[in-house]
Amino acid sequence: MLLNLLVGLPVMLLCLVMEAIFVTLCLRYYANHYKRFKDSGRSHKTLALDILLLGMVMLLMLLGNFAQMIIWAALFMLIGEFEEVATAMYYSAVNFATLGYGDIVMSERWRLLGPLEAANGILMFGVSTAVMTAAVMDVIKHNIARLQQSQQP
């Protein structure tokens, strides 16, 4: 069990750092594009811009989660649990998404890595959801403000 923690916790830490990077990139991308559009002199955001910004935030967060699944799969390959990359990726994705199909299991020596990845995955999906929710709320807030300004005499 201790070996699993010594191997799994640094990977979890790496994933936390990666998630922080992807969150920062998403927030900067969103803020920069919104500011650039606002500074262009247009009085309101367009539907296309809302879709583009939200789509980019979702895409970046999803890519961040995929990158973390790849890191876990690489760990499984490195410790010799799987011979095929596809199997390691499948197992990683099932754990990260907390599906837990159980059709593929790791050896008794490394089986605690599965729940560690699941704990990591559920946390990262929660963070990703929070970032996307914040972006959606910002779009809603700006659209409400735009509508209120257009209704004033």
TrEMBL record:
<feature type="domain" description="Potassium channel">
    <location>
        <begin position="70"/>
        <end position="136"/>
    </location>
</feature>
<keyword id="KW-0812">Transmembrane</keyword>
<dbReference type="InterPro" id="IPR013099">
    <property type="entry name" value="K_chnl_dom"/>
</dbReference>
<protein>
    <submittedName>
        <fullName>Ion channel</fullName>
    </submittedName>
</protein>
<keyword id="KW-1133">Transmembrane helix</keyword>
<keyword id="KW-0472">Membrane</keyword>
<feature type="transmembrane region" description="Helical">
    <location>
        <begin position="118"/>
        <end position="140"/>
    </location>
</feature>
<dbReference type="Pfam" id="PF07885">
    <property type="entry name" value="Ion_trans_2"/>
</dbReference>
<feature type="transmembrane region" description="Helical">
    <location>
        <begin position="6"/>
        <end position="30"/>
    </location>
</feature>
<feature type="transmembrane region" description="Helical">
    <location>
        <begin position="51"/>
        <end position="79"/>
    </location>
</feature>
